[in-house]
Design brief:
Length: about 450
């Protein structure tokens, strides 16, 4: 399946095999997904009468990226017939119409047939861990629910903070790979000089400081899903290496000559217009089309205002609160805000309101601004023993326990993953943006090993 670039419609591509000359002229065979064998032996899926065609002559495989044509080492060969040439082939992949000569006498046409895929209505306000009841979200969920069980590559497009990583993980959770790794690669946060090693891994001695072999993020995702976040930030000189990985499903570590096979499903995301970047030479056209098999637009929050109560309650629950009191006045205030920071900004507003115990917010420009609060009381001495803690007011005791746990847990986690926030977030099962906030909150130093 793929999305039509002009209409955004989900379509399924099939092929017809039609004999235009030779003993079997006029016969047409629809090719189903999977493999079709063609030859003169009765065990083939398509049996031809041409004696110059081998017993097992041709293998046609309908795949996600097109139609793979493989000559089965035949006596008289298979040729790709053009207006002025006839080129012998071994194995090729085609996406459009092509003409083949099998043996000496048979000429066949391979023609794509695109069929619209009816998405139907998505009735739930939840797709795995992604939430949304607005019509634009239900349409998005309907598309994703159809393609998630496949291995089709997905490109998520949308503004920063709109929830593309949550959507990507939801696709993974609804796929056949849900019990395998979901590996996040933030192309915007890895220094350029390290990204090749981070993506592809390296062998000992590949460069100064490479003291041991290292498995790259792509290899660590084998069997599962590789999420390439902010793919538009990937430097042009690294794009050919990534393209080879996507085409051959093989990765070669830095300093290594041997390629390692990887079994990955790829989901990419960007807030940039990659088609415009292709026109200006900042993004490779072949890589774009390899990534944009399924294109899905993740709408900004201002286009799904009716989802604010649902999202606010979810964020409050994830922060340890049962409810978030949305009064009519506050809901009206939130609904009229433009939300330049999208869903991420809403989460920050909810967290800030819960932390400060506010029932009213003043939102201006792009940043939430709280109402004036009285000056803080002089800090109390923090209890140091369990008995002292039990004598402390409940909310204060709970806050101190949580703070202590978060600080210790995060310090250990970042030490374990040598400052790699994406890996740490994946291991802990939390959003990496939440880790960023905790690092800032507790002023925890982050250094990459």
């Amino acid at each position: 399946m793929f999305t039509d670039a002009a209409t955004g419609e989900l379509r399924r591509r099939r092929f017809n095999f039609s004999v235009v000359s030779g003993p079997d002229a006029g016969r047409t065979f629809p090719l189903e997904p999977g493999t079709t064998l063609i030859g003169t032996h009765p065990n083939n899926d398509v049996v031809l009468q041409d004696s110059t065609v081998s017993r097992y002559h041709l293998e046609l495989q309908v795949r996600q990226d097109g139609l793979k044509i493989t000559d089965l080492e035949t006596t008289n060969g298979t040729r790709q017939a053009g207006p002025h040439s006839s080129m012998k082939i071994g194995s090729i992949v085609v996406t459009g119409s092509t003409r083949l000569r099998l043996g000496l006498n048979t000429v066949a046409e391979l023609d794509p047939i695109d069929e619209a895929v009816e998405l139907g209505e998505f009735r739930s306000d939840r797709f795995a861990n992604a939430l949304g009841a607005a019509p634009v979200m239900r349409s998005l969920f309907a598309l994703l629910s159809r393609i998630a069980p496949t291995d089709a590559t997905v490109l998520l497009e949308g503004e920063t903070g709109s929830g593309k990583e949550v959507i990507a993980e939801a696709v993974h959770q609804r796929s056949q790979r849900h019990d395998r790794p979901f590996v996040v690669v933030d192309c915007s946060s890895i220094p350029h000089e390290l990204i090749a090693s981070e993506l592809f891994g390296h062998v000992r001695g590949a460069y100064t400081g490479a003291l041991t072999d290292k498995i790259g993020l792509i290899e660590s995702a084998s069997g599962g899903t590789l999420f390439l976040d902010e793919i538009g930030e990937l430097q042009i000189d690294l794009q050919p290496q990534l393209l080879r990985v996507l085409e051959k499903r093989q990765v070669r570590r830095v300093g290594e000559t041997r390629a390692i096979p990887v079994d990955i499903r790829v989901v990419a995301a960007t807030h940039r217009d990659l088609r415009k970047m292709v026109k200006t030479g900042k993004f490779r056209e072949d890589l774009y089309y390899r990534l944009a098999v399924i294109r899905a637009l993740v709408p900004p929050l201002r286009e799904r205002i009716e989802d604010i109560p649902l999202l606010a309650s979810h964020f409050a629950e994830s922060l340890g609160r049962d409810t978030f009191d949305l009064s009519p006045a506050l809901l009206d205030q939130l609904s009229r805000h433009n939300w330049p920071g999208n869903v991420r900004e809403l989460r920050n507003v909810v967290e800030r309101a819960l932390s400060l115990g506010l029932t009213n917010l003043r939102l201006s420009g792009g940043e939430p601004d709280t109402v004036a609060t009285p000056p803080p009381a002089p800090p109390r001495r923090r209890p140091t023993t369990s008995s002292e803690l039990l004598e402390t007011p409940f909310k204060e005791a709970k806050s101190q326990i949580i703070e202590s746990f978060e600080r210790d847990y995060l310090t250990h986690l970042l030490d374990k993953y040598r400052g790699n926030i994406s890996r740490a977030a994946q291991a802990a099962g939390i959003d990496r943006n939440y880790i960023h906030r905790l690092v800032k909150k507790y002023n925890i130093p982050v250094s990459r090993g």
